[in-house]
Specification:
Keywords: Membrane, Transmembrane, Transmembrane helix. The protein is 29% helix and 31% strand. It is an alpha+beta fold and 112 residues long. A 6-stranded mixed beta sheet has the order 2-3-1-6-4-5, with helices on one face. The protein contains 3 helices and 6 strands. It has one domain. The chain is globular.
């Protein structure tokens, strides 16, 4: 089964997981081995299927719009890097279909 990796940094973990649930996406946590350096706080693998691209585009847009300072960076299979801010849902759908991974960053201060 193929999966799209989503790297989650800072306070992005909970919002992304909640948005994926709201959009009906199937996902799992990637195993993190002891002693392996990880730059992100977590890695989620979203199960790929023909109908998930619209939902994943909705997750990305909702995540960015919900709070100032959030960013989503898409790394393509050919290693090009695309910043998702300002893209339409249709543009994101096309880009995500060719993506190798997604990085979600919430650099804003936590409300806790």
């Amino acid at each position: 089964m193929s999966a799209l990796k989503v790297y989650l940094f800072k306070d992005s973990f909970r919002p992304i997981i909640e948005l994926m649930g709201e959009n009906g996406l199937s996902w799992s946590m990637k195993e993190q081995r002891s002693g392996v350096t990880m730059a992100s706080s977590g890695v989620v693998e979203v199960v790929l299927n023909a109908s998930m691209w619209v939902s994943m585009a909705s997750v990305v847009i909702a995540f960015i719009r919900a709070k100032h300072g959030r960013k989503v960076i898409i790394t393509m299979k050919d290693k090009r890097v695309i910043h998702a801010e300002g893209l339409t849902s249709k543009e994101l759908e096309c880009i995500l279909q060719k993506a190798d991974s997604i990085t979600a960053l919430d650099a804003g201060k936590s409300n806790r």
